[in-house]
Automatic annotation (TrEMBL):
InterPro entries: NACHT_NTPase (IPR007111), P-loop_NTPase (IPR027417). Keywords: Membrane, Transmembrane, Transmembrane helix. The chain crosses the membrane at residues 6-25, 32-52, 132-154, 397-418, 466-492, 498-518, 539-564, 576-594. Residues 130-277 form the NACHT domain. Pfam families: NACHT. Gene3D superfamilies: P-loop containing nucleotide triphosphate hydrolases. This is NACHT domain-containing protein.
Length: 665
């Protein structure tokens, strides 16, 4: 027996003992003790959940399971990033040629272009444990080159699976690289659990593609390089991107990455910019653009557009609109920074112009993007995850809102059952808050472990898992069942109390076990989108609600049997509305607020918390009521990009520009 289980047992025995003494000394008034019973059950369940969570580790996967997982992961990554590359126009009819220069002493050719990816891929895969650092200016196309290289690696059989991971949010001084890597792979690809992610890494079957070393705080970048040098083995391959200036500062403070080749993305040559524009100009704008390209200031304009990000912005703000391109010639006289700011500022105007593809007006879209950008900056991340939207709310706002929903649900159920005494109403509210407090305690006061879920009713190969889930949940339900047995013993007598307690344990174990078995973490890989994750988690929430209500119906029949059929005394008939309303209310609140793994095993459900957060922000004017649709459209338009199951602004410069106050842009 672990120390956790022993501690949980001692504390639970103390709580049950206190209940017995309290009932013996204070009497048997049902309404006065109902809240205490429910709350004590929550606390006891939390204690056993805490104990079980630190118990036996998951079994190590076999070699065949690891190979199969790598194949499934490769297919999901290929599907996701092929679609994302198409959304970024990396396969366009007029692709932009991006050149690169290798630093001296590397295993790469001295020079190459994005049209010659073999010159990067072949040397990179020629030996085990090779590493590549891709550097360049902001918006130079580092991420795009990394994505194209990923897709090329996936098309070559027998190579480790490249896994794209944003470095934003990693704290290398607090979290070791391997721990962070395993956690992120499991988060971005929930079909791969942490044990499998560790096995894939140890077997050398994955190549992490770490994007945005420069997005780490300045104080953490050198520590990240030190971590990588100390953690990577001789067979561990890696691709990492970073801005040039930040990279130079890092290697001045820390050692360069061991065994790594460094390739720097070149600025797009003025001739290539002019050629790209000439090929991309639509027929309706040919005359205006010919005049611009023939102007003596065209070379200076091309120099200001020497990065793929700027050329993409130019396409969206000028080539695909009726905007006069001569504005750029006037702006270039004030310097390249003015051109960049004009393009960044004009993106939302161009994409959300009246009569365009968008359903929302420009001013609202700009305001919402600004709020979301500032929210991400406050969090120190680039990842916009819908199940973490509650972090944009004031502290404790989401738990209080869900507590209000729970209290309203319990009160309504009591009223419908005809329980109208003031003390019953007070206790009903206390019951709801006990659930909220139990959840908060189980989370350590936070909601950071939330993840979207989906329903999987497949029986093939999962029968033993179902039996194990039911047995485990019966074990966790036993402490609460003991509390109800004590209460029933005082109210009804020992014979009925044992039946009521056992019935509660069996019903709770079966209901929670079935729902827990039927739900799986939503795999954000493949072609899945955040909107599909919202839909999947909503379906899972409704499943919990259905099972909760069904369980309450069965509990009501049991209450009828013990309260009316076994002994139809007047006192028991009078207590029946309390039993019925309490069972229904507790079941509904449990289904609404907690994950089916119970108060001991998981936090709030993602979808209800997301709905509460979205409506709060909508009422404050911070986001649209149809936020999922708005973000999905922004991804289609190119303002956002999808990385795993989250959105990011297309570029850090765009996020920072939208976050800035109106007058400072």
């Amino acid at each position: 027996m672990s120390w956790r289980m022993a501690a949980a047992g001692v504390l639970s025995a103390g709580i049950v003992g206190a209940l017995v003494v309290g009932l013996w000394l204070r009497g048997t008034e049902f309404a006065s003790w109902l809240a205490g019973i429910a709350g004590s059950g929550v606390i006891i369940t939390g204690l056993f959940g805490w104990a079980l969570r630190g118990s036996a580790p998951a079994p190590e996967p076999t070699r065949d399971e690891v190979r199969e997982s790598a194949q499934i992961l490769a297919e999901a990554v290929d599907s996701q990033w092929t679609g994302e590359a198409a959304n970024r126009h990396l396969f366009g009819a007029t692709p932009l040629r991006v050149g690169w220069t290798a630093h001296a002493g590397s295993f790469l050719p001295a020079r190459g272009t994005s049209e010659e990816l073999d010159q990067l891929v072949v040397p990179f895969t020629a030996g085990a444990g090779r590493r590549l650092v891709i550097i360049g200016a902001a918006g130079a196309g580092k991420t795009c080159v990394a994505i194209l290289m990923m897709l090329e690696l996936l098309r070559r059989n027998g190579l480790p699976v490249p896994i794209f991971l944003s470095l934003s949010g990693w704290q290398p001084r607090r979290e070791p690289y391997r721990t962070w890597l395993v956690r992120r792979i499991a988060e971005d690809h929930p079909s791969v659990d942490p044990a499998m992610a560790r096995a894939l890494f140890r077997a050398g079957l994955i190549t992490p593609v770490l994007d945005g070393l420069d997005e780490l705080p300045a104080s953490e970048r050198a520590a990240a390089f030190r971590q990588l040098n100390s953690c990577l083995g001789p067979a561990d391959s890696l691709i990492i991107t970073c801005r040039t200036r930040e990279y130079e500062r890092i290697i001045a403070e820390a050692e360069p990455l061991t065994a790594a080749a460094v390739v720097e993305i070149d600025a797009v040559a003025a001739d290539d910019v002019i050629a790209y524009l000439a090929a991309a100009i639509p027929p309706r704008a040919r005359q205006a653009w010919d005049a611009v390209l023939g102007d003596e200031r065209a070379a200076a304009m091309a120099g200001a557009l020497d990065r793929p990000l700027m050329l993409w912005l130019l396409r969206k703000t000028y080539l695909e609109t009726a905007r006069d391109p001569r504005e750029l010639l006037d702006a270039v006289q004030a310097g390249p920074e003015v051109v960049h700011a004009r393009l960044l500022d004009g993106l939302v105007t161009a994409l959300y112009e009246p009569g365009g593809r968008s359903l929302w007006p420009e001013d609202q879209a700009r305001s919402w993007f600004g709020f979301l950008a500032r929210h991400l900056i406050r969090l120190g991340t680039h990842d916009l995850a819908w199940w973490q939207l509650h972090r944009a709310l004031p502290r404790h706002c989401a738990p209080l809102a869900l507590g209000a929903v729970a209290a309203a649900t319990v009160l309504t159920t009591f009223m419908l059952a005809g329980v109208t005494t003031p003390m019953a109403w007070v206790n009903a509210a206390v019951i709801a808050e006990m659930f909220i407090l139990g959840l908060e305690a189980e989370l350590g006061g936070g909601t950071r472990d939330i993840e979207p879920m989906r329903v999987d009713l497949t029986m093939m190969g999962r029968v033993r898992l179902l039996a194990g889930r039911i047995a485990g949940r019966m074990l966790v339900a036993t402490p609460i069942g003991a509390c109800f047995t004590i209460l029933a013993m005082v109210l009804f007598g020992p014979q009925e109390a044992v039946g009521i307690g056992l019935t509660f344990i069996v019903l709770s174990g079966v209901a929670i076990g079935v729902v827990d078995w039927a739900q799986r973490a939503f795999d954000a890989g493949g072609s899945a989108s955040p909107r599909s994750a919202i839909s999947a988690d909503r379906t899972a929430t409704l499943l919990v609600l259905f099972v909760g209500i069904t369980t309450c119906a069965v509990a009501t029949l049991v209450a009828l049997w013990f309260g009316l059929v076994v002994d139809g005394s007047e006192s028991r008939i009078a207590s029946f509305p309390y039993v019925l309303s309490a069972a229904a209310a507790l079941g509904f609140v449990f289904a609404l607020v907690g994950r089916p793994r119970g108060l001991a095993f998981g936090p709030y459900r993602a979808w209800p918390l997301y709905v509460v957060s979205r409506w709060y922000l909508t009422l404050r004017g911070r986001c649209p009521a149809r936020l999922g649709r708005f973000l999905g459209e922004a991804h289609e338009l190119g303002v956002l990009r999808q990385v795993g199951g989250v959105y990011q602004f297309r570029h850090a410069d765009l996020r920072d520009h939208l976050a800035a106050p109106e007058g400072s842009r």
